[in-house]
Design brief:
The protein is α+β, with helices and mostly antiparallel strands. It has ten helices and 24 strands. The N and C termini lie far apart (56 Å).
């Protein structure tokens, strides 16, 4: 891997590139999925290749060029490098200003995957037996649909640049989920564990599956799904809202993570899911949320799905402030976008979906930092509201301002106590108004990192694996439920 990346970089420089980097990525993914007592999917795939990114041009105007190859040979690596330079020269005839990069100290390093139990050591029969036992327990509760899955990813990567970087990184990701669905006159009612849309995924080994203890949650999960159709429908009106777990993580993802991607702000990521309302003049002064809202981007968290040692430009992982005491203070950046707004360095947010794609500005672990009250204290101090968990649907506009979310389950709060379940809960809001209404964030006792393995961006589309650390948070006077004029 190291020989090929260095060869590609040297070939690109020899062909006229002023800057070049190359990545060899070898990725193997496995997935086991069972449904209603049968194996629905059993996959084991491998993808590997080399991608070369260069800056080159005519008359001092340098532009990006990129090319790759799926055959890992010296000849193909050289050819890809030459193609990348040719494409950069063609692109340079169309740009208004040349690409400039913020400085980075080139690093030589090798980083193994920090796992305790390698998923490869767990036989396929054991994985299937675990899911089948959970399936049996869910169907014993007479739900119509029972689903369980386990996923594993192993990745090896080497990065080299013309500045002298040479970085080898290994990565292991493990995840699991259970879903139980009841079909009733009111429609389908679903409950998920540990969360919806793929469950929980982390940059950890099989120890995560042991900690999730899927069999202990399968029966209670299905029992809740079976009783949910009998719950009252979510009331409509304005009331206090408490978000917890994966739902708060997704709220943070959509209304805080995407708008801080600086390529969106600068207009180079506009056609796929829009741009951003967080324009550069807002940096350092715009009130994003209440003074209870503190948000960080942290790629250094152990086990986070958005964690790594170095990004795909060779920039070290960092922890940086995004919102501090409610004030917007920082973006997710690349070396190029950081230079465009006058920053001295990137905060290491560039990643690509495999070898065949250009790196893009992506979320790392975007976290709502813990507050001071316990989750129980927040509920106890709520006169009337709804606690919502586990996302069912979402919609947000192209600038990440107006949103609507639906959840699997709501729990009505009256006089500081949980009064019962409600079905089909939903809420709407406008991003800055919503976060300014946040008056309480739960403490570190219930704070955890949730993985989002399906974040889409770019054309051609790329899927990023990102994380969000949250506990629970309360938002005052939020529109919940469906009103008659919607």
């Amino acid at each position: 891997m190291e020989d090929l990346t260095k060869l590609a970089v040297e070939a690109a420089v020899a062909a006229g590139a002023s800057y070049a980097d190359a990545r060899v990525v070898d990725r193997r993914s496995e997935r086991v999925r069972v449904k209603n007592g049968a194996v629905e999917a059993l996959t084991d795939g491998r993808n590997r290749g080399l991608g070369v990114r260069v800056i080159a041009g005519r008359g001092g105007a340098g532009a990006w060029g990129f090319a790759g190859c799926g055959e890992l040979s010296a000849g193909e690596a050289r050819a890809a490098a030459v193609r990348a330079v040719e494409l950069a020269r063609a692109a340079a005839t169309t740009i208004g200003e040349p690409v400039r990069l913020a400085e980075v100290e080139p690093v030589v390093d090798s980083v193994p995957a920090p796992v305790q139990i390698d998923p490869d050591d767990i036989p396929l029969d054991d994985r299937l037996a675990l899911l089948m036992e959970c399936d049996r327990q869910m169907r014993a509760e007479r739900v119509e649909i029972a689903v369980g899955s386990i996923s594993v990813l192993h990745q090896r990567q080497h990065f080299a640049s013309s500045e002298g970087a040479s970085i080898y990184q290994e990565r292991v990701e493990t995840g699991a989920m259970l879903e139980a669905t009841t079909i009733a006159d009111c429609g389908a009612c679903r409950r998920s564990y540990p969360s919806s849309h793929g469950g929980q995924v982390m940059s950890r080994g099989w120890e995560l599956i042991n900690e999730l203890d899927l069999p202990a949650h399968a029966g209670p999960l299905a029992a809740e799904a079976r009783t949910l159709p009998d719950a009252a429908e979510c009331p409509a009106g304005r009331m206090d809202l408490i978000l917890a777990g994966g739902q708060l993580a997704l709220q943070l993802h959509e209304s805080c993570g995407h708008p801080i991607e600086l390529d969106r702000v600068l207009g180079t990521e506009a056609s796929y899911a829009g741009t951003s309302f967080l324009t550069p003049e807002k940096l350092g002064s715009f009130r994003y949320g209440s003074d209870r809202v503190n948000i960080t981007a942290d790629a250094t968290l152990l086990g986070g799905l958005g964690s790594f040692a170095y990004d795909d430009e060779g920039v070290p992982a960092q922890r940086s402030w995004i919102v501090r005491a409610g004030i917007f203070t920082g973006y997710l950046t690349s070396r190029e976008t950081a230079a465009r707004i006058g920053l001295a360095a990137s905060n290491g947010s560039m990643r690509a979906d495999g070898w065949a794609r250009l790196p893009l500005v992506r979320m790392t672990n975007v976290n709502l930092e813990p507050g001071e009250l316990s989750r129980e204290e927040i509920i106890a101090s709520t006169e009337r509201g709804i606690l919502m968990e586990d996302n069912l649907s979402w919609s947000i506009d192209d600038k990440r301002l107006n949103f609507q979310f639906g959840c699997e389950i709501g729990r009505l709060i009256e006089d500081g106590e949980i009064a019962g379940m409600v079905r089909s809960p939903s809420y709407t809001g406008i991003t800055p108004e919503f976060w300014r209404s946040c008056d309480a964030v739960a403490d570190a006792a219930t704070w955890r990192i949730w993985g989002v393995p399906n974040c889409g961006k770019g054309e051609p589309g790329q899927t990023a694996h990102v994380g969000h650390g949250v506990s629970a948070a309360r938002f005052r006077d939020v529109q919940v439920g469906v009103t008659s004029d919607e």
